[in-house]
Structure formats: structure tokens, C-alpha cells
Amino acid sequence: MEEKKPGCHGLRLLLDALAGEPGSTDGTHAACRMRWNRQFNQLVDAVVLGREGFEGKANEAVAEALEATAPT
Predict the structure, then answer these.
(1) pLDDT truncated to tens, each residue of the chain (72 aa)?
(2) Boundaries of domain holding 39
(3) End-to-end Cα distance, the chain
């Protein structure tokens, strides 16, 4: 069984992705679906997509992250 790091969602996933160790943002954990956390999940996706050369999709993920942080 894989050991889980403390803070396995949100900012921790983003920092891991920036360090080249992206985790999963599959949304199975309840916190992944919370509004405050969506921005981090989208930014993780943007980092991974950008590194894989999908600039357009990475930009879309950043736009979705910005939308998630917009006041309601």
C-alpha cells in the first residue's frame, strides 16, 4: 500500500507538480471537489500539460483555475 503524504491535495499537489512529481487530481477525495481546492487541481493539470508540450490545453487549465478563484 502506498504511503500518503500529509496534504495530498491542494497546494501540496501543486508544489509536487512543480518539483516534477505530480500526484493525482482524479477528484476521488472530497477535498478535491471543494471550491478552494479546484484552483490547485487545475494548476497541477496546467503544469503537467505544459511539460508534455500541450500549451493550448495548459492555458485552458490556467484559465479554469482563474475562473475557480473568481468571486461568486
Answers:
(1) 344 444 456 788 888 888 988 665 555 555 656 667 888 889 999 999 999 999 999 999 999 999 988 887
(2) 11-16+29-69
(3) 40
